[in-house]
Amino acid sequence: MGRMGRTGLLSLSEGGSCSRRFLGYDSGKKAGEPPVQETTEAPLNDTTTTTMPLTRIQRLIGERMLASKRNKSSYYMEIKADVTELMAIRHNLTRALGVKVTTGTFYIRAMAVAVKRFPLMVGRLVSGVSHNNGDGHILQIAENVNVGFAVNTPRGLVVPVVRYTEGLSLAEIAEEEKVLTDKARSNKLSLEDIADETIALSNLGAYDIDSFLAIIPPQVSAILAAGKIVRAVVAQNGVPVVRRVVSLSLTADQRVIPCDYAAGFLQCMAEELNEPQRLI
């Protein structure tokens, strides 16, 4: 859109171009009147642009996420988790276990624990007919908590999967997370590495993002979005104290997971992260 001068109005001409008409201007001016200069903005198609082709991964992810957004009845909720103790022990834990323990490692471990109490979080609708449901869909609950976590690479976003997390220790999850992240960034992920996701995690804390709402991947019914860990003043025993807090946002499919059920899962996540010793 063009700039508007102090005495000008911007309007759309009948020809579809943007032109400036000055207040008091009459196109049928009388003889002897001073000429009025008309100005026309540069055509929009004169704008310099750069064309960048989409990669195969970008096209595939875009198509699948758009289909998921259209087809799932998504709702959103958020909780703040106190991770002060978690951050205090993380670096020492890395040295003790001999493998890098990230905040994402704790999130995956906490998700595995919380899903044991709330198994619908790894449920999904599949084609089928039951005796009391003739609409062509039935609810299928996965036996395993396979957490897909987003990794940004030079070729685009990929989602490797930490499989069978319900049976893994924190150290085992950390090791698997590291191996998959390295493979993702070196373009060495196999089909098995990205298969069988049953719940998803997206962590943008490293990008200085406070909180965000994620789109549910097509094959699952819930995704947890984690923001950056910040210092916040909270009341503790009636006294203001500074704690480390993270925003956890959940996007879930209403057709599979009731809102109050998802709220219970999110509360369980926050409780586990608040007492990280239970996750080791």
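^ that was protein a. below is b, sequence first then the tokens
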Amino acid sequence: MSQNPIEIIWKSGQYCAQMSASWPITDRGLALGDGLFETLALTGGKPRHFAAHWNRLRASALALGFADLGAGDDLAAVIEQLAARNGLHAGSARILLSRGEGPRGIDLPSNPAPQLLVRVFAKPKGNLPPLHLALSQVRRVASNPTSRYKTLSHLDMVMSRQWPVDGAIGNESLVLDAVGNLCCVGTGNLFWIEDETLFTPALDCAVLPGTTRARVLKLAAGCGLQVKEGAFAPQSLFQAETIFMTNALVGVRAVCRIDFGEQQVLKTLDSNPLMLALQQAEAASG
């Protein structure tokens, strides 16, 4: 299957060429980041774990005052159709939900007309580089909606890579919460293994409830691991046998190095058998 050179997108019920699509300048998603998004893996031209992503989007939208989005079954078919029209077999899909147009100001519009946009993307060529984390100056706050939901206001994670602590170097960020406990990495959730126990920061440490995170926690027992969620200081990672991140596109990906700045660098193993068992179980989960 060859990729279509003219990208086809889907916007609120209509397929169209990306170059001919328009977006109103009064849209609140554009002006205020007032909206949500989901990123899904495409495998065999189909969205992977669509139900988990849609259920999170639906619940998040309700929490933020959107009308109920419904079951979403038709959107799974839209993504499959988009993959076919764009000639994509493997890659990713992005669902973007905006509250729609509104007057100037931050108050919610009285009669919002939300907009849904769906795009698909080819899988990048080549292998991923070793994952090196750099401790970021950016902190996440548990009570903020940008921490609890996957909002269009994603600037904290964008800047987490751009604002490392002095001297720290990496290709991905390590982010703490407002009180200094471990939170996440720039594009996913954080895990580590020690003494046959799987550790991960709890959701109340400003952690986004990742769909792959939830799946890995369920798979842990079958891989011989106990689970411990909680508030952990960065120093906890120095006791880890292996450290990894998760997200919808990479599944389980090992961390090879963490730079905390001030010449404090932690090198970790990327071939731990328990982590590899989790990686394989997640990959086989659908």
